[in-house]
Amino acid sequence: MADHHSGIPLISIPGPNKFSLNETALERLLLRKEVKDLPVAVISVAGAFNKGKSFLLDFFLRYANHQYGEAVERDIWIGNDGEPLIGFPWSGGSSRSTTGILIWSKLFVCTTSKNGNVCVILIDTQGIFDGESTVQEWATVFAISTMISSVQIYNLSQNIQEDDLQHLELFIEYGRLAQSKTGRKPFQKLLFLVRDWSYPYEHGYGAIGGKELLEKRLKTKDDQHVELQNIRRNIKSCFEQIDCFLMPHPGLKVASDPMFNGSLADIDPIFRAKLKELIRLVMTPANLVVKRVHGEVVTTKDLLTYLKKYVAVFNS
Ligand code: GDP
């Protein structure tokens, strides 16, 4: 189980707009001989504070703990009804606000038919517009997590709003500055994840409804202000793939009961069903996206090299 593992800071911000890579811990983690030469898949969840990112990631962890490696009980990964949810610390109502990237200290090895054994890394990226950090700081953190991830899950509350697209465009710009001009799209897969979607009669929960909403939101129209058209073009031109998934509300216990410990019995059944669907979409061996840079597969060891390069660029 995951109990002796934790989220380790990948980057710290020791001074205004200074970024420092947690090299010692990362070397210990990424250069282990069982994983260093394997292709890597990095799944990141990013977005504003207190919107259920860590909560979601802990279900990703549950899946990885049960389904990858040598586990035998294949269908019960989601857990028992009363089991508390552990992993990345999640909590409601507290004033915690960290800007940074946490990497889960356990790396998973998943056997895939396309890429053989793949090292799967989960990261939690916090801090968009938390009022504590500067725009440059959070934009940098988001850019770095987007550059190193094979799937960036952009966690949003209730809808895809115009300012969500603007925030995205801002950190994309930072990321682009750090990428060499190769003519290739700088980032891989972006998944808009809309939490507490409340218009299922307009677009149903899940990936199909998500696709419909995304098409609507990213459409450029002649009567739109040119700036809005440019934001949309920019976003589309930066990612190889963009998807969207609509999640239902998880129920009042999850959203507002301070005693809630994450147990499934207190989570709305529709949410649970969609959670399984989402995790299958991102994490089953056939769906795992391996990290590539300029088309080349990146290994766990290469990831460290890229991180060093990116952090140096942002500090210069
Ligand atoms: P993070 O700061 O984005 O990582 O948010 P957390 O994962 O720490 O969760 C913050 C609070 O939101 C906790 O009280 C969770 O129980 C609650 N929560 C988790 N998922 C959802 C969701 O989908 N909708 C709502 N409304 N609350 C959620």
From TrEMBL:
Parent sequence residues shown: 1 to 316 of 476
Coiled coil: none
Entry keyword annotation includes Transferase: no
Protein name from the UniProt record: GB1/RHD3-type G domain-containing protein
Source domain of life: Eukaryota
Segments forming domain GB1/RHD3-type G: 37-287
Family classification: Belongs to the TRAFAC class dynamin-like GTPase superfamily. GB1/RHD3 GTPase family.
Source organism of this protein record: Nesidiocoris tenuis
Keyword vocabulary terms for this entry: GTP-binding, Hydrolase, Membrane, Nucleotide-binding, Transmembrane, Transmembrane helix
